[in-house]
Every structure is written in structure tokens, then in C-alpha cells.
Write a structure and sequence with these properties.
The chain is α/β, with parallel strands linked by helices and 220 residues long. Helix content is 31%, strand content 33%. Helix 1 runs antiparallel to helix 2 and helix 2 crosses helix 3. The chain starts with 5 loop residues before the first strand and ends with a helix.
């Protein structure tokens, strides 16, 4: 499924569904190295798809036998992620956009004693993003609150030319929230799959669990 502002890669048969099936599988999840690598692979697929939307300039390349005119990326994007779960996905993007500048955002769910939570923003490390393409990623998009908070934090570093928001598994509610809060033509959402259910504790069902814990171990 694709439109101007939302692209769902998993609706068509491709290898992304193989990797999504593995990161969901509770048995395969026991191998944290494989889990991280699959997040990275999915990031590479997103990078390739997004690369089709970017601007290219023709460059003359001297080969051993002559000149080849090849379209090459005009400008590198700025790629950003929400730590810590987003790091393997970010690495996949960086594998393809290997000359890109990078940004890192610290934001997390801070739980209260009654079980409710709010998104706690701590820090952002980012370059100037004026008139640049930014790609902001996080493996899971539940309520959408942390993604929107991170997007707004990025805007403090400048006015981007366009923003691509990536999540592997998203809830419909999260997508709706982002579209409502950004509400402009300069944001495109890319997801692997959309799950319809979001629990009262804001967990995606069937989802996959806590991506950060699965990648790096449980936190206290």
C-alpha cells in the first residue's frame, strides 16, 4: 500500500516479510545477534526504497576503458534514530547512506506507579538540518508520541526540506497520530506492517515485544 504520505512495504511480497516474520518469532527472538541483524537488514531495505525518492545528478565516471555517465545522489540525507532500540535499524540505513550525517535522540516511556506513562525526552545530538532530507527511525510505532516528540526535537535544529519517518511495525493509531500532529506535505511515513490492536498499556498486538530488550537485553 502506498500513497503520498504512507508507504507499507509488507503488503507486497518481498524479503522484508521474511525478516519481519523472524523478528516477530518468539523462538528466533532468543538469538539477540540475529534479531539485531534482521533489524539492520530491514533498515537497508527502507534505505533502498527511500533512495528512489531522492534527487540525483549525473556524474561522468572515468573507467579503464572510457567515460560512463551515472546518476549519483545529489545530497546525502541526515539519518536519525531514537535510542536504544533504534540503533540496529539506524545502522542498516547508514550502511546504504554511508556518507550521511547522523542524529541521535534519547526519549523513553517513563512509567508511574499506577502503570500510566509519559514520554520523557532527555537529549538530542544532531547537525543543522536546514533544507536537508531527514530520515527518522524507530522499530516500533505504538502511540506515536515518542516519534512526534523526536520529530519536533529535530525541528529545533532547522527546517528540513522533507522528513521520512520509518517504523518496522506500527499501530494504526500511531500512524493516525503522526499524520495528525505533523499535518503537512513534507512528511512521508514508511512502515513494514500495520497491526490494528493497541492494548490499554499501549503495546502493539501481535507486535513483537520490546525491541530494545530483544536487541540489547532486559533493562532494570
Amino acid at each position: 500500500m502506498s500513497n503520498r504520505s504512507l508507504n507499507v512495504l509488507g503488503v507486497e511480497n518481498s524479503l522484508i516479510n521474511q525478516y519481519i516474520s523472524e523478528i516477530r518469532d518468539k523462538e528466533i527472538q532468543k538469538d539477540s545477534l540475529r534479531f539485531r541483524r534482521n533489524l539492520e537488514r530491514i533498515g537497508e531495505i527502507f534505505a533502498y526504497e527511500i533512495s528512489k525518492t531522492l534527487q540525483y545528478d549525473e556524474k561522468s565516471i572515468q573507467t579503464p576503458l572510457g567515460i560512463a555517465n551515472v546518476p549519483v545522489l545529489a545530497k546525502q540525507p541526515v539519518i536519525a534514530t531514537i535510542m536504544r532500540a533504534g540503533l540496529p535499524l539506524h545502522q542498516g540505513l547508514l550502511n546504504y547512506f554511508d556518507k550521511a550525517q547522523n542524529a541521535f535522540i534519547s526519549a523513553y516511556r517513563k512509567y508511574e506507579k499506577d502503570g500510566t506513562f509519559h514520554i520523557q525526552f532527555e537529549h538530542i545530538s544532531a547537525p543543522d538540518i536546514n533544507d536537508k532530507i531527514i530520515i527518522l527511525s524507530d522499530p516500533m510505532l505504538a502511540t506515536g508520541a515518542s516519534m512526534v516528540l523526536s520529530y519536533l526535537a529535530m525541528l529545533e535544529k532547522g527546517k528540513p526540506k522533507h522528513a521520512h519517518i520509518i517504523s518496522i511495525i506500527a499501530s494504526r493509531e500511531g500512524i493516525d497520530y503522526i499524520q495528525k500532529k505533523t499535518n503537512n506535505k513534507n512528511v512521508t511515513i514508511w512502515v513494514g506492517a500495520i497491526d490494528d490492536e493497541l492494548t490499554v498499556k499501549s503495546y502493539i498486538v501481535p507486535g513483537l515485544g520490546d525491541a530494545g530488550d530483544l536487541a540489547y537485553g532486559e533493562k532494570s
